[in-house]
Amino acid sequence: MATIKVPARLPELAKAAFSKALADGDLFYFPTQVQDMRVGSLSFQLRFSPSLANKPKGASKSSATTPSKPFDPFEYTTPPPPLFVGDVGPAHFLVLNKFAIVPGHLILATRAYRAQTHILEADDLHATLACLRAFEEHEAAPAESGALFAFFNGGEHSGASQPHRHIQLLPVAAMREGLPAGSPWSMLASRLDDAAVAPFRTFAEKIRLDMPRGELHAAYLRLYEQSVRAAAGDEMVGEAATTGEAAISYNLAMTRDRLVLCPRRAEGADITDEDGKVVGQLALNGTMLAGTALVKTEAEWDALRGNPAALTAALKMVGVAQPRFVDTTGNKL
């Protein structure tokens, strides 16, 4: 199959679209404070956005005679011009995330409705890889893990917020904003060939920017089956279905040279302070495969900074715990 066509000079186009939409008030940008946190041998970004707690709610389609229908931000024949970036092949399009905490946050959505809870199709992954390739080819100096980080939240425990299928794309350089000079943070997905590096189990394969559509989808299905087996305690008999509703919740990450899947058991975990009092809940989506976590209240921010082991404990709880993980920081879990 021919390479999927993406908009010309996509990085510049996306950057200009974000700047204009922000200036015109067509999207919301929530700046964050950031601190490096140790999770074993990893440096995790902990980010705090107090204004995100006041994020506007999506509208519902309802009337006096019809039940409320959940709002689908990707349900339109023609995407709204202020957020629309361009088509990616015949089946997908790019829009700006209306509620961004990373500048230039893009969303790759299916033009026809596809369920977020279903197993991804070959075209979904092929379109994602085309976007990564477009950024890589036009960025003068891509970051160490490439110019884009792509992630997918699949299922109720994955951090998914919309039922319409979409894959999210974050500029890696923008993900570094706010980090101190010399920060040890690097893209976690690029390190997940070492299965014991994170407190949750992951499955990874190396990929290429020119990888054929069929090969990429086959790699995804292999990782998906491994994730299903891990969620079943490695006791699953037979092969996992390769179409329809996914058997598990999971996150997917894609960089220029890695495809990673992480089975999920829960969307979040309680945050406790040093006295053991619950002060909030840490909700995690596919950005945890980049090595990032986000809190919305000052109590959560203070509690995690004061008790770094709580972050490691939460990461163990939301995925399938990695028994080989060693907390080298000396923190008590």
Q: Structural class per helix/strand content?
A: alpha+beta
Low-confidence runs: 60-64
State the helix count.
6
Report the biggest beta sheet as strand number plus sense, adding barrel if it closes: 8 strands, antiparallel
**Strand line-up in the sheet with most strands:** 4-5-7-9-8-11-12-10
Q: Please tell me what the overall shape is.
A: globular
Total count of strands: 15
What would the keywords be for this entry?
333 residues, alpha+beta, HIT family, subunit A, 6 helices, 23% strand, Ap4A_phos1/2_N, ATP binding
How do the helices and strands line up, and which of them pair or pack?
Elements: H1 10-23, E1 28-29, E2 33-39, E3 42-48, E4 84-88, E5 92-96, E6 99-100, E7 106-110, H2 122-138, E8 148-154, E9 166-171, H3 172-175, E10 203-206, H4 213-231, E11 249-254, E12 258-264, E13 268-272, E14 278-283, E15 292-295, H5 298-306, H6 309-318
Parallel strand pairs: 1-6, 3-15
Antiparallel strand pairs: 2-3, 4-5, 5-7, 7-9, 8-9, 8-11, 10-12, 11-12, 13-14
